[in-house]
Predict the structure.
Amino acid sequence: MSAKGKKAKGKILVIDDSEIVLDAAQAALEEAGFEVATLSTPFELAAVVAREKPDLILLDVMMPLVGGETVHEILKRREALKGIPVLFHSDRPESELQALVERTGALGYIPKVGDTDRFVAEVQRWARHLRTSKTP
């Protein structure tokens, strides 16, 4: 249950090296009814995924030491982690993000545009897509 007492729309793990982005994403998504877990480095990814069991991972592309593309490859190869949909989240040009999605097989991308309403709307759109595609 969310803080407002409503059933959450899903759980999202946000991975980004910027605490500002993590705080803003968490606040906006929780306000929209999602449960949110955050991670500032991908090094505890397996433990956090096991504990939080996210429905969706929102993954920064440009992080120090290990970039989003490498993290996505790790997710695809580890049995306990694969199968969790990944959306890249970046301020890279949309053409680069689309090429990255095509190259990696990620679910999609959400541009970092500084527009909270657009960000939340995009996450909601992808969450609806995932819910409707999981019907038996």
Summary: The chain has five helices and five strands. The two ends are 25 Å apart (CA to CA).
